[in-house]
Amino acid sequence: MEWIQTLLISGLCIPSFCADYRQHCLIETPKSWSDAQSYCRERGYDLATIDDMGAIEPLLALNADRAHDELWIGLHYGGPERWQWSLADKDFYQEGERDYRNFKGELPGFRFTLQYNSKWYNHGNPEKHVFVCYDGNRQGGGRYVLVREGKTWIDAQVYCRRRHTDLVSIRNSTENQAVAEASGGDYVWTGLFKEAWYWSDGRYSSLRLWDHHAVVGNFPQSCAVMTSHISGRWSQRSCHELHPFLCTCTRKWVLKVKVHSEDGQELNDPAMKTAILKQTQQLLNVASLSNHHKIAWKTNSDGQVFTKEQCQEEDGDI
Q: Are the C-beta atoms of 166 and 144 separated by less than 8 Å?
């Protein structure tokens, strides 16, 4: 007699993929950052991760009629420090390109990077230097735009984002040489910066939109707020302060499917569950969904994944 096993799969739709129906929720009850994080997570969400500039305007629109001065987002001090590029677009980098470095030497405590004669040096934000912007709308060497106006690193970042794409990223030795040629022999700011800030949901996003008047440092118990004025810039606050907050409302589905087992195999065997899960993942790969869904077993009340259902016998079956 044939038995039917019931398989439950939970799928998580990651918001950056579901751009057309990505949801953010504004929770107006002021809470500390950790209490806001717990509130979002208890409902299957998390504090908002912001991974592209296009997300800022919809977030500001949520607060347009409420005018809360500051809203918690998911960014918080987490340590350890790590180097990141100002240009956060994940599609801009191939594997390993985020990690290209050409430092001549690193000085402790300095978080921003200058290039000079193809070598890199880290310095502090208060210093003013000329800088190179990257413009994704141009071709070839024209993508590297030298701005001969001395600015701090953060002000240079603001300038590049307003007029071009961002401060320049350097992904390999060829680009490093191209930026050196564009610099005209000057020390120039690049987009590489070092900090110890992480997103609550663990996703990688190097996007930072700090207010250029804010003093931002790597201090424990520090969390980020988005201000409600038109730019939506961010500031550092004590995580114990009380603010309204933004959740990224990811969508979760539980799919119920049936697996036919005619040879008496025990599908709750760990090896069998792993094999079926792997096969399901391969189907998602074929559908080009593997980067946008996470699948896992949903356990029943008896601690098992599968339950047995006896097939209804058709007329003439024994």
A: no
pLDDT, block means (10 residues), the chain with 318 residues: 38 34 79 96 88 83 81 91 90 92 83 93 88 94 95 92 95 96 94 92 87 69 85 90 88 61 71 77 57 59 68 46
Q: What is the pTM of this model?
A: 0.65
Report H helices in the chain.
Answer: 33-42, 56-62, 153-163, 173-182, 270-286
Q: What is the rounded CA–CA span in Å between residue 281 and residue 295?
A: 8
Q: How far apart are CA 26 and CA 227, in angstroms?
A: 13
Which residue, 108, 105, 109, 136, is CA-closest to 120? 105
Question: Where does residue 37 rank: exposed (0-12), middle (13-18), buried (19+ CB within 10 A)?
Answer: buried
User: DSSP character for 210?
Assistant: B
What pLDDT score was predicted for residue 133? 98
Distance in angstroms (rounded) separating the CA atoms of residues 109 and 125: 11
Per-residue model confidence (pLDDT) at position 249 = 73
Q: Domains in the chain and their CATH numbers?
A: 3-14+260-310 (no CATH), 24-248 (3.10.100.10)
Dihedrals φ, ψ of 274, to 5°? -65, -40
CA trace torsion 240, 245, 250, 251 (10° rounding): 120
**Among candidate residues 167, 190, 171, the one with its CA nearest the CA of residue 100:** 171
CA neighbor of 114 nearest in space, from 128, 96, 100? 128
* Residue labelled with tokens 């569950």: 273
pLDDT of 106: 76
* 131 CA to centre of own chain: 26
Closest CA relative to residue 151, chosen from 132, 135, 170: 132
Q: Tell me the three state secondary structure of residue 155.
A: helix
